[in-house]
Amino acid sequence: MSPFFLVIDVGSGGAKAFLVDASGVIVSAGESPWDREGWSPGPGWGSIVEAVRSVINKGEHGAKDIEAVTVTSMREEFILLGSDGSDVKIELDEQSKAYGERVLEEHGERMYDLSGHWPVPNWIAGAVLPWMLRERHGLDDVHHFLMLADWVVYRLTGVACTEGSNACESALYDVRRNDWAWDLIDDLSLPISIFPDVKKSGEPVDTVSREASRETGIQPGTLVVAGGADTQCGLLGMGVKPGEAGAVGGTTTPVLTVTEVPMIDPLRRLWTNVHVEDGRWTLESNAGFTGRSMKWLNSFMASDEGHDALNHDAGLVPPGSNGLLTYLGAHVFDSGPPYWKHDRLGNRNVPPTITGKRGFSR
């Protein structure tokens, strides 16, 4: 029998699980939604378990047929774990934001030039960890710093590791060397011991533990391999080659070009990422909250037809939407300070139009 693989995707809207065959065809899928704004590791893991069990408990193929497991996730979020594996709560407020602004001013350009990312206050690890170090007078209770996909791998195997396409989002990573920016980490007085070993995407990590097996239903001893960031995995699935570009639609729509060398924007507007393909990088822009805007539009129009109907309507309108303009979602990307200034394009009046629902969908 052909082997099957379990892919766990931890996204902004929920946890998804897919059983795929050796050619990449999805055999079954499951999903458990969550609220990103109120997300926490405990309920989050429960949603992941629910999504996984919904896949392996339906259809003719189940846990016994799974050859290996891998994980993709949204890229910026991270989790801190104590020595007992429990999560260390991260408190963010106006004070942490103000301190993050200071980190941005003092170290932001260096972080960008190393990692390809700005340390956005109250979000990116490069701004949050120095704040926690100051507030807690140290990070003695933190044993592991893990990006979101890394945390899922840890829950499955008990092994703490990371992978470059996710880790580079921390602003504490050296994209050229595909390793932690150790000199920067040392200069920030962050404890080196909390940063895990770096695995390559597709590299075996360990096997599913008995505890994780009891929770998820995956058989103990099933191989777990390092996955990658959701966007870069999307590019890999599309077969985007160096010099080509791809757009990965979701809550937002990242637009990336694959490169054979790490390219850092001299004006510091774009993101540079490690790709999941070894020896490849990506240069990234982003069209903004496109998927979220579609969801809002569907709700605003009180439509129960779903996104497929909106896409169909949009296809009936020529490019340019007959002159209709909107700043509800897409924008010109510039990640440089003042960071996320493109978000201030919102709340513009939409000019009168005769285009109607189809034009809004376009």
Structure notes:
This protein is α/β, with parallel strands linked by helices and 362 residues long. The protein has 2 domains: 4-230, Nucleotidyltransferase, domain 5 (2-Layer Sandwich), CATH 3.30.420.40; 290-361, no CATH class. It is 30% helix and 21% strand. The protein has helices at residues 41-56, 94-115, 125-135, 148-157, 164-167, 182-187, 210-216, 230-238, 290-300, 307-315, 357-361; strands at residues 4-10, 14-21, 26-33, 66-73, 78-81, 144-147, 161-163, 173-174, 179-180, 197-199, 204-207, 223-225, 228-229, 245-247, 254-259, 271-274, 281-286. The strands form 5 sheets. Strands 1, 2, 3, 4, 11, 12 and 13 form a 7-stranded mixed sheet that branches. Strands 14-15-17-16 form a 4-stranded antiparallel sheet. Helix 2 packs across helix 3. The longest helix is centred in the N-terminal third of the chain and has 22 residues, at 94-115. It starts with a strand and ends with a helix. Residues 342-354 have low confidence and may be disordered.
